[in-house]
Amino acid sequence: MGKYIAKFFIEGIIEEKGELYQQEWLLESLEKLTDDKKNVALMLYINSPGGSVYQSDEMYLALKKYKEETKRPVYAYFASLAASGGYYTGCAADKIIANRNTLTGSIGVIANRFIDLTALLSKHGIKSETIHAGKNKIMGSVDIPTTDEHRAIMQAVADECYNQFVSIVAESRKLDLDKTRELADGRIYTALQAKEKGLVDEILTFDDAVDFLKEKEFGSKDFKADVKDIRKKPKKNLIKMLKGTFSPISPLSELKEALSLTKSATMRYPAYLYEG
């Protein structure tokens, strides 16, 4: 293969290691691209609801480093969903291009979810006690009531992460900081709404986005460079495929269902999530 544009897939929940997203593999792949002289540009293909603060920021910084060291262009293409941590990562790009059916934005932070199950535990005759030192060490546990101090602690964490997120969006998109805060109320935007508000640059198909990159960066859409997929394909797992086929009967099924709400990894909404 001669010169090529790397189609760099950022898919699924942004976390250390998941079914679609694997941070270590992506970072190693980015280092290889940095050293590969045949690579002339990066087209991020982002299809993600977001994820962890740590991994999102680490990937953002790694992409910025790639740009600084190689002086090569980085563009982002948003597929069906590029929200929250997915949008954060896309802010490393020189240009952001969305599919016309993209949902994006969701600029905000989830620091924690407090679920108080003390009444439910009492209903089932369950008593729980954790021996600990430091009065806030077990805050967030489902078997203790949430206090105002607990809320204040996690709100401070959320606010700090949020300010960092907003600053990065403002810098990347060349927007006024106060204006960015108005946009960053956690809502999602359609592609057209995002373009009108300056959160994306163009609305194109992927093939047209590649032509757009070639024309803007290399002078012509006929610039000779192939598109090479950089993508970690997930392995099929029979156990995971079968999981959920059978539901065990339990007298405490109500409790188990409530406890499952505390597992943040099952993300059914766009999120930029602080996991301490």
Describe the structure.
The chain has helices at 23-35, 53-70, 85-90, 118-123, 148-173, 177-183, 191-196, 206-218, 238-242, 253-260, and strands spanning 4-11, 39-48, 50-52, 74-83, 95-98, 103-105, 188-190, 202-203, 226-230, 271-273. The protein is of the alpha/beta class and 276 residues long. Helices cover 39% and strands 18% of the residues. It has ten helices and ten strands. The termini are far apart. It is elongated. The strands form two sheets. Strands 1, 2, 4, 5, 6, 7, 8 and 9 form an eight-stranded mixed beta sheet that branches. It has a two-stranded parallel sheet with strand order 3-10. Strand 4, helix 3 (85-90) and strand 5 (95-98) form a beta-alpha-beta unit. Helix 5 packs across helix 6 (177-183).
Number of helices: 10
**Overall pLDDT level:** 88
Helix content: 25-40%
- The portion of residues forming beta strands comes to 15-25%
Question: How does the SSE layout of this entry go?
Answer:
Blueprint: E1 4-11, H1 23-35, E2 39-48, E3 50-52, H2 53-70, E4 74-83, H3 85-90, E5 95-98, E6 103-105, H4 118-123, H5 148-173, H6 177-183, E7 188-190, H7 191-196, E8 202-203, H8 206-218, E9 226-230, H9 238-242, H10 253-260, E10 271-273
Parallel strand pairs: 1-2, 1-9, 2-4, 3-10, 4-5, 4-6, 5-8
Antiparallel strand pairs: 6-7
